[in-house]
Amino acid sequence: TLGTQTDYRDGEAQTDPYSPEYVVHSSSVPEILTLAVLTWGRGLPAGQAEMEIIDRIREKRAWEAALPPMDSPSNIAKRLKMMEAMERKEWAYREEEIDKLQKVQLAVFKKLLQSREENQNELDAVRLYIQWQNHQKAKKEKMRKIQRDCALMLRKLIAKRKNLMGKLERRDIIKEYNDFSSQTYAPLSRNGFFPDNNSDYYAVKNFYLNTFAGLCELEKSVPDSVSQLKIKAPKPKCTITKTGYIKKSGRLDAVLAQVHQ
Fold first, then answer.
1. Where is the CFAP91 domain (predicted)?
2. Among 43, 53, 229, 251, which is least packed, fewest CB within 10 Å?
3. Where does residue 53 rank: exposed (0-12), middle (13-18), buried (19+ CB within 10 A)?
């Protein structure tokens, strides 16, 4: 039964209203048969537009019943005149329907164009904001570069102004050792000093740690108390049984003695 499809499953269920069979007598023409083209979902249930169509069908049937017979030239002329008037009325109604349809289409087009313009404006705003951010970043970077170049040029001018006449000055050793930012304490690489070349100069070199003889001498100088430890196990303050368990009374006595002290 797993692959069996029944006759009453949801996909085959009836969704349209039931229309019973009917028989029309030859002498009668029911008015409801003029609405046979309307089906559920396409005209039914009837709205304002469908009611207007029904009223027009009734008016046309009444007009057809009021037409004069074609038995005399005067009746024929009158009939043609009435038919021309009805035709002009039909064309006017059709033009009105076309105008309404065009207005609806125009409103839809306006709405679509408005939504399209709003979306385009949003995209343009996002694009302009991104470009503005990029320009701001470029502006900040340019200002930072200008400030850095300005500070560099100012330092050069200050250094150049110190010896404006270009006179040779003798080295003042006392002044250099008194100034911790001088070449004595902080030499520059552009002057030929590379601190990484002599990095091991500041490493600690110990005779007792780096040589075997120093280690032997260091061991001789160490007293025996360092290598030979004498640690006594502390005596328990509580009563201990043969199995090594401390009784509750002993623990309580120790706590009370500690509190008393």
1. 4-156
2. 229
3. middle
